[in-house]
Amino acid sequence: MTLEDYILAHIEPEPAYLYRLWRATNLHTLHGRMASGHLQGRLLKMLVQMIRPQRVLEVGTFSGYSAISMAEGLPEGGRLYTFEINDEMEDFTRPWIEGSEVANKIEFIIGDALTEAPKLNMEFDMAFIDGDKRTYRETYEMVMSILKPGGFILADNTLWDGHVVDEAYDKDHQTQGITEFNDYVAQDSRVEQVILPLRDGLTLIRKR
Prior knowledge:
This protein has helices at residues 3-9, 16-28, 37-51, 65-72, 90-98, 113-116, 136-145, 173-186; strands at 55-59, 79-84, 106-110, 124-129, 147-156, 191-196, 202-207. The chain is an alpha/beta fold. The radius of gyration is 16 Å and the shape is globular.
């Protein structure tokens, strides 16, 4: 048994619906590993339960696994707005979201969150950034502009398979986007932050 297997055996079981979604994502999409999966999905749900946001913004829906996981933890009346820029994902993702038990808590929007999220004209209590790594810094600034004081940002993939400390990837645009984001947040006096070495790196950020 690996350490990961041990962990998965000692946390909340993965819901059957999400397991089927994870399987379908890996079978029918090119980048199935991008789906959050059992451990991160249960963490996202628990973080939502701890923070108790009324409005959550997600940048990067992909197959909907993380959106459904977070919506599971939302309080009564809570709502999650999730943006996916790749319209080719809609035919796969929308039926999975609409078929979930938390479909009434999720607004799935095809479009660029950088320009479209501010048009919702609302403030958010929490955001999950998991979109284009090359624009993480710009996405972060957009989210900060519509995040309430005391609100939380979760940023995924911030260790990027360890590439952030591997000089061989210095010229890779996505790695550059992540390292620039990490450096920027580390120097931002408006926030407190901690990086968790979970999966591919998850940064928890609190707006002061």
